[in-house]
Amino acid sequence: MNFSLQDKLRITSKLDEFGVSFIEGGWPGSNPKDEEYFRAVRDIPLENAEVVAFGSTRRTSVKAAEDQNLNAIVGSGVRTATIFGKSWDLHVRSILNTAPETNVEMVYDSVRYLRDHGLRVIFDAEHFYDGYKSSKDYAIEVVKAAQDAGAETVVLCDTNGGTLPAEFERITREVASLLKARVGVHCHNDSGTAVANSILGVLAGARHVQGTINGIGERCGNADLCQIIPALEIKMGFSTSRLPAGRLRGLKSLSLYVYEVLHMRPDPRQPYVGENAFAHKGGVHVDAVMKNCVAYEHIDPSLVGNVRIFSVSELSGKANIMAKIREFGLQADKNSPAVTALLKKIKDLEYRGYLLEGADASLYLLIAKELGHYRKLFEVVQWRTISESRNGGFAAESSIKLRVGDRELYVIEEGNGPVNAQDRALRKAMYGFFPEIERVQLVNYKVSIAETAEGTASSVRNFVEFSDGRSHWVTVGVSTNILEASKEALVDGYDYYLQRNRISGTGDQSESAIGRDGE
Fold this sequence. Notes:
CATH superfamily of one domain: Aldolase class I
Helix content: 40-55%
Protein name: Citramalate synthase
Structural class: alpha/beta
GO molecular function, one term: 2-isopropylmalate synthase activity
Pathway: Amino-acid biosynthesis; L-isoleucine biosynthesis; 2-oxobutanoate from pyruvate: step 1/3
Radius of gyration: 30 Å
Distance between the termini: 53 Å
CATH architecture of one domain: Alpha-Beta Barrel
Strand order of the largest sheet: 1-2-3-4-5-6-7
InterPro entries: 2-isopropylmalate_synth_dimer, AIPM/Hcit_synth_CS, Aldolase_TIM, Citramal_synthase, LeuA/HCS_post-cat, LeuA_allosteric_dom_sf, PYR_CT
Number of strands: 15
Enzyme class: transferase
């Protein structure tokens, strides 16, 4: 992943808005983009955060006053700097190729130089936990040198991410008892314990935690602040930023914003902020949550800006169906034959390869039809799609005959692929009857093998995602013919939009068309 200058400035503003205390903006001595960042960020009015410049201790061969990187930090205009130095004797001898005492001098000189120029200093003791296990006395000598030189915060870094929680807590507690400076922790996730180690670090005395939004970072990533912050605030009673109560409700939106800037798909299973973090599928779970949400939720999802989701599948019971009915704004009696019939239909569909838990629009149409809330607005009477090579190139064409009331319209359209041709033809045919569909766009299309309960894979499953600029919805189609599956999902996508507009009262144009042409 790579951030542009504008990406970094936009994320800086979002982090400040959320209330993060320190933002490491980059390494001003390493590349022109980071140097430009520190010039440009001065024009951003920050209310809560302080932008920090990052760098390393001086090189072995020069004095601190002559070190280009240290002088770039001083010249960046920041008030606080984070510099890292070696605390593992292996690195000192094998990577720096210098004597242990020389490395200690480098740490002291670098911190002191920045302090003499009026900067607050956060010292990152790189590879501290490995260094402590290799040579306890030397690792402590390094961090004490940084403290004695004036470092305000000494950060113990598990740079390789290999220290497990029990050992991490023990070492952090021992070191925190020896230092007067504020102790911080910096954890990598190579053992899958970066979040756990960060939390244990706080319990052991650390009061400064470094991490990233969504845990992005080197190799397996850094500690995920989207997990650490709510754990500390909601469950442990710590205050982690400078905004008033309620700021955590912006956590999910912050997480999604960073994913969007990076063009990364959000992790649906990410704790606290993931789409599935408060999703319930098993019938026993859903029934319990509807009676008392604490039964299967460790916090109220709204505290971090998330929402509760109920899914339906072959595991569903009537509680799942009722939850979705209420979520869709419809009504039904749990003991009605319609609910029993819905449960059977859903299980039959999943037996045939459908996955409705990821396609709420298709599920809505199924429920609305069974409960009598559905009114047929149009019908695709005939369709044909052709894909062929033409003059050394590729062409696709689709024809649609659409019926609305007693009127029919036949349309032929070309596209840059068969699905695009289908969509263009369907949109053109529908537009004369339902002009509001102009706002709808196809934004994602996915195909997978649809295995049946017998384990056969003769069908394909198509998911199509739509948007009208304000909301998104997903439909699913399954068939042995990939174009038939696409057509099913496309038709359901437009049908869902019109049905919801009709019920919500925003579909005046479609209502007038139906009134003119009959049902």
